[in-house]
Structure formats: structure tokens, C-alpha cells
User: What shape does this take?
Amino acid sequence: METRSRKRAEAIAQRPSSAQSSRANKRARLPSVFASAASIPPRSRLPIRPLSGSTLASLRPELTSVDLEMESSGSASRREHDEKGIETANERERGGGISNNDSDEDHEDEGVSSLQQNITTASSALEGLLRKLGARRDDLLPGSMPFSQQSNRLKRILSGLRAEAEIGRQIDALSQLCEILSISTEDSLSSFSVDSFVPVLVTLLNHESNPEIMLLAARALTHLCDVLPQACVSVVHYGAVPSFCDRLLTIEYMDLAEQSLEALEKISHEHPIACLRAGALMAVLSYLEFFSSGVQRVALSTAANICKKIPSDAAEFVMDAVPILTNLLQFHDSKVVEHASICLTRIVESFASSSEKLDELCNHGLVTQAARLISVGTSGSGQSSLSTSTYTGLIRILSKFAGGSALAAKTLLDLNISGIVRDILTGSSLVPGMSGSLVLDRPTDQVLQILSFI
Assistant: This one.
């Protein structure tokens, strides 16, 4: 009994030491395991291969068989876990790509829907604007109203124009009338009474105490002549042309003068003689330098219209304008020069049968200026600076003078007209270094004028 008890006591005494040695061995094995794990390449570069028990034994011979089995099973479970993690990550990446595509598609859908919404909003706003404009047009255009409503509105405007004691009411009525006439057509003004409105407008055009009323009246008459050409007869009949001329001959308000010039330009197309006898030719030319280039062209175009039909007994309305037109042949604007040439050509042709009138025109320097301009040898201001129509017109003027005025013929001989014609026919001095005849290169009408001149 004592022997068994002693043996059991010795065994119990040895157990702690073996347990401690086992713990020490395990602690010793941990650094080597970590070191071997650190030496394994990353999974992204080398494939993962399972380690067999013999391989583990050769790597770590200090492990027991039980430990090897545990190590092998642990590495297998870790490998399975890692493989599952990689598959999960790949699925997440694929899922993320899909979700990103879905989000892009969602953004695109949102953009398309937003664009469609903006288009719809803009379309609605445009429709509303068009409806408002249509309603405003219906309010303004007499032709778009019922006949009774149209007539009543025009009667109210006419009543406002006649309210002499109420300046504000007259200005308001003039503004409404100008607005209506500016957007109307001839058909829409079928019920417009020209003979009722024109006398009142001409009276207001002479309202010296209020320049705004004069300007609006001139504008209304201009719009009326534009939209209803037959109304020019009433405008002329009730004395508007002399009033327009007065606004140009005594310029106090530049905008009123320009509006009067525009009105005369429209009237001059159908009634040139009435404009001429009212003094419109001098009116449009007297203060030409005060206007802009565009207004200057309108003035010369008006003058050309006025000179279209000059009666034989209307020389007094023309002669004072000849010096101005002659000087304009040297103007810097080619359009002004062309219209001035047209005016002079028409004036000379109108008086071609009267040697006295031609002599009077010659005394204004017209022959000398025309001969100088057609001369090919004139440097800087010769025929090269003139248009074909202007150049042909000047030759026609000289031809009329040579055939109808002894004074003009003598003046031409003094200017060596034979040498000028020779240079025109041969092209001498036209371009330095060029020789030979250029007459075949000229327009037929111009050649005929040159030959008739000879």
C-alpha cells in the first residue's frame, strides 16, 4: 500500500513540470509559425496550395502527429475561409459594378426626365407668351376685331385727337394711332376714314408749342402713307407737304426733321411734282451735312424721285438746287454721288429743249465739273471712283449740253473735250503702263453715249 501511494505522489509531482514544459514548447513554436507565415507570398501573386502532413513534418519536426493533424486541418479551414472571402469580394466587386451601372442608368434617367420637364415648362411658357401676344395683337389690330368694335375704337382715338384743351389726351391718342398704323396692313384698315384723320393730323403737325405732338403727328402720317399708299392723295391735298418742308428748312428738332424727311420720301414716289412745287427739293438738300450717312442717302433718294418729272415751268424750284447737286458729285459716299448724278441728268434732260435753261445750268459750273469727272487722266477723282451708271449719266449730261447750248459747247472746247474723249476711247492714262483701246470693254449704253457725244 505504501509503495502504491508513493508512486502516485511522484506521478502527481511530475505532472506540473511536464505541463510547464509543454507550454514552453508551444511558446517556442509560435515565433517559428509566425515567421513561416510571414514568408508565405501574397495570395494575389502565388496560388494557394494545401500542405500535407509530411510537408508540415519536414518543415517543423518538433510537432507531434496530433499537432500536425491539427495544423493541417487548421490550414485547410483557413484556406477554405480565404477562398470564400475572395469569392465574396469578387461577388461584391461584380455587384458593385452592376450597382454602379444601375446608378449611372438612374442618373441618365433622371437627366432625361429633368430635360423633358424643362422642355415642357419652356413650351408652356412660350404658349402663354404667344397667347398674350395674340391677345395684344387682337387689341391693337383693327382688322382682327369685329367691325363695330374696330369702328368704335377709331372713333375714340379721333375724338382724343380733336381734344385741343387736353394735351395729355391728344398725346395718348396719337401714340395709340401710331401703334395701330405701324403693325396694320391695307386690308386691316378697310374701315379707316382717311379724310377724317388726315386734316386733324396735319393740324397737329403744325402744333408749334408742343414738339412731341408734332413728332407723333408726323410719324402717324408717315405710317399712313406707308400702309395706305392711296392716302398720299389726302396727305398732299390737306397741305402736309409744305409742313414737312418747313420742319426741314428750319431745323429745331432733329428727330422731327428726320421723320419729316422719311414722310417726304414716301410721298415723292407717287407725287413728285407736288413735292417739287412745295419746295421739297431744296428742303431735303439744304442741311444735308447735319444728318447721318443713312439719312443723307434717304435725302438724295428723295431728291432723285422729285426730279423724275420736272414740268417745263418749274425751273425756279430746281435752279437753286443745281449748285448743291454739282458739289455732291465729289462727295465721299458713292450712293450720294450716284443719286446726285441721277438728279442732274433728269434736270438737264427736262430742259434740253431750252438753250436758255441749259445756259443757266452751265453757269452753275455743271459742265466743268462733269467734264473733269469723266476725264481718265484726273488723278484720285476720275472715272475709277465712279460707278458705271454715274459715269454714263455724266457723259449723257455733256452730250445734252453740247447739242443744246452754245455756251456749254464753248466751255467744253476750252476744257479740251476732244482730248478727253480720245483718252476715253483709247484708255490712255487709265492704268499706268497699259496701252491699247478699252472701248470694247465698256457697257453698250456707255459706248452709245460717247459716240453720240462725238
Observations:
- The mean pLDDT is 76.
- Residues 142 and 153 are 8 Å apart (CA to CA).
- The chain has 21 helices and no strands.
- The two ends are 174 Å apart (CA to CA).
